[in-house]
Amino acid sequence: MDRFSNLAFNEMNLITGSSILQFITKTSWILFFFSLPVISFPYFPPAIGGGAVVRPLLIYPLIILLVVATIPRLVSKSLPRTILILIPFVIAASISSILSFRLDIPPMQGITASERILRAFITLGLGAAIYLTVALIPRTLEELRVSLRWMYAGFSLALLWGSLQAIYVVRFSESYFQLLSRIQKYISIRKLFPTRISGPTYEPNWFAEQLSFLLLPWLLSAVLTGYSAFKWRWRWITVEMILLVWTVLVLPLTFSRAGLIVLIAVAFIGLIFFRTNRAEKLPRINAHSKMIMRRVLEAGIAIIIVIGLTYFLGRNNEFFSRIWLFWSERSNPTLSEYFDYLGFGARFIYNETALRIYNAFPIFGVGLGNYAFFFEEMLPDQPLAIMPEVLRLVTPGAGDTRLITSKNLYFRLLAETGLIGTALFLAFVIAILGCAIYLWLSKNKERNYFGVAGLLGLLAFGLSAFSYDSFALPNMWVLFGLITAAMWMKRTPKMPTGNVEETNN
User: Fold this and answer.
1) Residue 328 belongs to some domain of the structure
2) Residue 390 located in a structural domain
3) Is 228 helix (H, G, I), strand (E, B) or coil?
4) Mean pLDDT for the chain?
5) Could you tell me where the beta strands, DSSP code E, fall in 174-296?
6) What b-and-e string marks burial along 115-151, b requiring 16 or more CB atoms within 10 Å of the CB?
């Protein structure tokens, strides 16, 4: 405990001087990253989204940071150009929403279009505030290292909580499950699942997305490049390597198909393209081809291990084992039947409906949050009896006030902001990608690390965006903000190199 207290004190001294304002800023900054894993916190007043499903705990330190640091820097400092690219998207989304009032949209389940638009703008504003805060507050690479250390500290607790949940998933105990469920009520608004782990989040898919999208790229990049945000290292073992192994062991127990796909994709691409180059140790003839062959082999072995672990853990999980049981249960299986069997049929309907809305309103869409009001009207012509999930949404029960979403960020953008809004958002993402590539090509080892992590993170974002559509989830904005902050450090005359392993990894 004393060691942890000394660590906290030393971290705070990095930025905090004698100024109370700086002390408040640094303390809020630490709490911001430490609280990242908790995203459905039950104790939220209605004024800041108490009725929503997404309730990031980081909102509390974020409010303080906005007042004491983010807003002052917006008006007093030169801004990264990526921020200037985000502004046109916000303007386009605003125009789309204003134009939607001309459509005279009737209320649905007691919710009006104006209420829906207001809520959507609050979530977009929250996401933009997270991005601006992460992008603007760090001034040195050392401060970025501090940010990573506290993010790792928060996720270490999340992994520990997930590991405790893994005990009842592997060997169920009713009394133990009920004990953890009572504790979970103070962390999340939703109960635990007896056959899957949720960590500190709303549901297993959210926890898997956090681990594979927000945490995994930074850990894997550190291992691949030999970089560590910590001074401690025992031979080739680092804190990031320990956390990476822990993450890979915990993530399969969420039994999230999307999370597993992102894990496999990020690991495969990372191991092949971003390993520290050892080609100079090989003979000059065919050195490059041998290196590529070895990396493909290593990546393949790693993926086989992950898939094998998932298969072993998922044999007794009815939800997850359907992935491979389908082909043995059906005599003449087809691919379309397979997707329906896995529950993807409903997702395809959501996406097709979004495209139909886009085709009807191609320029500006129907306004932020208004997808739900056009869902039933734009549904494709097909029987819904075989889609219970969709049928429940079309005929909701009494007291159900949760409206449907597209569950796909790309299709949501097309339906609600049209071609213009989607193009502007993609331009913003491409600008972030450009920053990551620039960092990756840097000869500075620490900035190269942020580039590799950024590219792997953007790969995870590109895949994850097919399964979520909320602007309020912090993952995307924190990733974009860290890449922007690292890129903006190019104006700093002297850049520390950090704790980087000089030998090849």
Assistant:
1) no
2) no
3) strand
4) 82
5) 227-228
6) ebbebbbbbbebbbbbbbbbbbbbbbbbbbbbbbbbb
295-319 core/surface letters (b: 16 or more CB in 10 A; e: else): beeebeebbeebeeebeebbeeeee
CA–CA dist 170, 162 (Å, integer) = 12
Q: How far apart are CA 470 and CA 54, in angstroms?
A: 8
The listed range with the strongest mean pLDDT (111-115, 384-388, 434-438, 500-504) is: 434-438
> What Å distances lie between residue 351 and 182, 367, 414, 416, 475, CA to CA?
37, 17, 10, 13, 22
Residue 239 pLDDT greater than 90, yes or no: yes
In a domain, 25, yes or no: no
Q: For residue 244, what are the domain limits? A: 79-323+408-500
- The first and second tokens of residue 103, run together, are 């459509």
Q: Looking at residue 339, what is its pLDDT?
A: 65
**pTM tops 0.90, yes or no:** no
Number of domains in the chain: 1
10 occurs within a structural domain: no
Task: Tell me the three-class secondary structure of 413-443, residue by residue.
Answer: HHHHHHHHHHHHHHHHHHHHHHHHHHHHCCC
The two structure tokens encoding residue 12: 């705070």
- CB neighbour list of residue 457: distance below 8 Å, 6 or more residues apart: 213, 214, 217, 218, 436, 479, 483
Task: List C-alpha distances in Å: 7 to 3, 13, 150.
Answer: 6, 10, 10
Q: How many CB atoms lie within 10 A of CB 377?
A: 10
